[in-house]
């Protein structure tokens, strides 16, 4: 895609892997990196055809007057920024994260009269000049994460502006107060971090196309009650609103959002709703929002059956996020009567004392799939998790001394151990573990299958099984000796020959013949080849490999077969080599001479060898031999 774009002169890429490129007419310019030698950025003496220049300065003599779109991903590209006055036809300017941007550059930017998109997000800009109001075609202004404290009043002249985003780097509550003329911005669709301090003339309701807004009332204002009533009336007129975050600067105030209780005509198209501030109860109209998908709240200090008694009535609510100080009671209960028809996610972040208990009754959240609880260092407990029949993910975050965290950690460890045992069972051959270990594995598998909806029963059953395997002397050492390395058959050749029964191989004969044929075609003079047989546990990979070895037995002087699992470690290597050597020394009879060679090594000799001795002996036995 990039090469086609470059070929059609759709985009001009400079820096990084595109260093050395130059172009005739640049329309869409993207700076990905500036070479260390890129110093001279003076205007070009003449037009240059697109060609390579090796390591020459890729921006020397660059013609910028035809550029329509300019994106800079090079943070230290300040030299090119000094030529912003040459971008006379620019429509799109994306300088996000550009540390070289200075306040003086904004003067040149505000003279780009055709500009439609401007992003100074993540820069160190502290002031936007009033001339920004001259950008009459501007549709998007992103000034988030800067050092701006306010926007100039002339921003209301941007009558074509659709998105206005603002936030300050070093301030927790970074907001700006819009001027009275904001009602002239009829095209505005999204605006964030507005605070209404003392200007009652801010008519948000006149923005008929507004779809998303973050707005707070100054709780310290002497006319705060009048400001709240005015905001409530404005919200009743925002019929197109989809996204609303409303709050108060005094988040610890008592019931400072109660003015939202009696909205005569709340925005019915809301899909996202967030309250940041105290409220005596959740407004009933929240449950009537048929389009609501996500609800968030902080500092509500609710009591009783709130907020679930209201939220459960929202027919399409899928996500609930409850943050700090959302509830002031000791126990927050989702009752059976609070039957959420569509709820999938419940995320709670609570670093204060209340509530101390989160309880979920059976039938309250039957479709919940994700539960996230962040309790920080507070001691809290959870009740009723076993009622979540469709739960797929549980995240419990907090300090390790939290008893609830410890309970979840114990359950997680038990489940991890069970999964490990099941993997060991899948990887091991039928004869690789003794009877008691096999029984324990089967019991664990049965527990794993009944996991959904039976968490409490699962934990109790796991304890019983643990007592059983302790009673019979089973331990991790037993499993580590049996599962990582399965014992080889006493007579490998006979074992392979015994497999020559077509009834034993269902559905793998064709695959075995195909692999055997590939091995037969290999050049014997070339180095060894490795064939990998992959698939899920229980598909018959080991059986297939053994059948291939049986079919090719006549081609090889030596054969050996060992089975290992995912738990195989360096400490198991010596045992593996012993089993290989035990099979290698059992030489097949020479069919032409009718003689069977006997090897001088006995099993006792092999058992006494160390790792180096085993390695050298195997190399000696396989020298100039074909083996598999």
Structure description:
The structure is a single chain. The chain is α/β, with parallel strands linked by helices and 628 residues long. Helices cover 25% and strands 16% of the residues. Strands 1-3-5-6-7-8-9-10-11-12-13-14-15-17-19-21 form a 16-stranded parallel sheet, with helices on one face. It has a three-stranded parallel sheet with strand order 16-18-20, with no helix packed on it. The protein has a two-stranded antiparallel sheet with strand order 2-4. The protein is extended. The chain starts with a helix and ends in a 6-residue tail after the last helix.
Give the secondary structure arrangement, pairings included:
Blueprint: H1 2-7, E1 12-14, E2 21-22, E3 28-31, E4 51-52, E5 69-72, H2 78-81, E6 92-94, H3 103-109, E7 117-119, E8 140-146, E9 163-168, E10 190-196, E11 212-217, H4 224-235, E12 243-248, E13 272-276, E14 294-298, H5 308-311, E15 319-322, E16 331-334, E17 345-349, E18 357-360, E19 370-376, E20 381-383, E21 393-398, H6 403-427, H7 435-449, H8 455-471, H9 476-482, E22 485-486, H10 492-498, H11 509-520, H12 541-551, E23 563-564, H13 573-584, H14 603-607, H15 611-622
Parallel strand pairs: 1-3, 3-5, 5-6, 6-7, 7-8, 8-9, 9-10, 10-11, 11-12, 12-13, 13-14, 14-15, 15-17, 16-18, 17-19, 18-20, 19-21
Antiparallel strand pairs: 2-4, 22-23
Helix pairs in contact: 6-7, 7-8, 11-12, 13-15
